[in-house]
Amino acid sequence: MTTIWYTKRYKFIRKNAPKGxxxxxxxxxxxxxxxxxxxxKDTDSLSLFDLAVSYQSMLSTQEQIAITKKAxxxxxxxxxxxKALSYACLRGKLYFLSDNNDSCEQLYHWLIPAVENExxxxxxxxxxxxxxxxxxxxDDAETRKKSEExxxxxxxxxxxxxxxxLNMMFHEQSDSSLQIYQELLQRFAxxxxxxxxxxxxxxxxxxxxxxxxxxxxxxxxxxxxxxFDLANDSRGVFGVCSNIVAFYNSQGLYEEALPYxxxxxxxxxxxxxxxxxxxxxxxIMGTIYSGLTQYDMADSYFEKAFLLAQKKNxxxxxxxxxxxxxxxxxxxxxxxxxxETAEHTMKIIAGKKKYALQANLLMILSEVAERQDDxxxxxxxxxxxxxxxxxxxxLDNMRQLIYADIRHTQDQREEENRIKETAFKxxxxxxxxRGMWIAALSVLAALLLAGGSLATWLLLxxxxxxxxxxxxxxxQVAEAERQVISKNKELATHTLQxxxxxxxxxxxLKELKTLKTSFTLRGKEKAIVCNLEDLARQIASDKxxxxxxxxxxxxxxxxxxxxxxxxxxxxxxEKHLCVLFKLGLTNRDxxxxxxxxxxxxxxxxxxxxxxxxxxxxxxxxxxxxxx
Length: 627
Hints:
- The chain starts with a helix and ends with a helix.
- It has helices at 2-16, 18-34, 42-52, 61-77, 81-97, 101-132, 141-169, 174-188, 194-210, 214-231, 234-249, 254-270, 276-291, 295-311, 315-331, 335-348, 355-371, 375-447, 450-518, 523-537, 542-555, 557-566, 572-582, 587-594, 598-612, 620-625.
- By secondary structure, the protein is mainly alpha-helical.
- Helix 13 (276-291) packs parallel to helix 15 (315-331).
């Protein structure tokens, strides 16, 4: 009878108040965590925290971040350092998922040394206990416990490094990210732990995919999936399947991506993930079906992802979901709904400097308005798109210029350090020689009393000379640093001016071409447009290049001499390209500077690599800086 009553009661609640149950769950967690009234055992209390920040949690990312801080303090109060650092590592991942990269970087700055220290302490304790029990059974309970604790610390360390590496990758530091994973593999290869190998292989695959090295990326991602299966880690399988789908989608191989997308979506459903994983899984399936032109199938997945992002108040995901959903609605010819969704998404990301996302949404809105025969709105959206695109291009140019300037400054600093080391080495050698001479005079002074005063005088004079020499050397080094900084600023300023002139020239010529295409020009109007084109082509002349070369030769006068000496068959244009590639400029930037197409610049770079005898995978900028 009691069972029947509870069954009816459960059906009634499930039918009439599904939201009440979720609210009650959140309310209980809030009471337990916020007031720290955890009356159960420590294990149960930590389990409650684990549930609140697990993939099954229905809490938002910001709520989970707050919970991890409280959980970390609670674990420390109970003396559980491993659990406390685990919560800190999880908070770093939540920072990364919420696009809070600065907080993520700051957290791992102290977390990784802390985990390294605990791992070292654990290993030392384990080895000392084995030495004390030299004749004991190596498979006893204490030895196994120590080994399991050491393995847990290693996995936590790999997670911390992996999250840091992914954060660095999204900050244009793919080389550093790859180096982290390679060092982890080399460090833990002898352990042959599937979970550690899987995390390293997965990270390397993501880095290679981000660098467009698809052959290597595919190999490592499939290795990661195999190791996660061996470790029986459903979370890892979910993550790597999602990465494999993104890997195939980026190459347009949607049929190959479908089985992995279905597997990741099925895991999210079976494991009842309630975090961002449901959004990612739905986006993955929508993208695959959209790529296969099955827009009706894709619509339900995109709509689900968009509504989930809205429900969880994840603005950084809501914008991307809204873009994909709007594009799919446009493909389905549901223009009114596509326009409404895109305009709503534009309001969400307003003022957040997401230029690429804004540009895509404005292009969708322009196309929707055109399909609705709203020519005025279509033109307005297209003009806004061009403005955002110009801002995005200017931002990219500035970023590339800053990166080139940073790399150039680092090279200059290394050269200055070498000069300083050479100067101080000479001073040291001189001091040693004078010291030997003074020592000889001191011995002579011990034999001859009259020579004592002479030795003292020579010693004082020598010290004064060394002091003066050091001061003079420091003054010369400071003057050299000042000149290098001044020339670097002139070079960066002139390069930026030339980039802006070429971008201005390109924009004017493009607009004039659009004017000539859109309208039939005759007589005086046609002559005016032609004159404007001639004036536009005169904006960036050879004088800017000569000025740029003048500044560059003042900063690095030996480079052109070395280049001509080692490769005498290079023509003038190839030498110009070598100067630009040495600064670290991209093909697009070089094309803008020289007035050539990106394809011709790419072919020129390939021919230079052939002449220099370097592989396609190697960076020509690195080769030229080391010349």
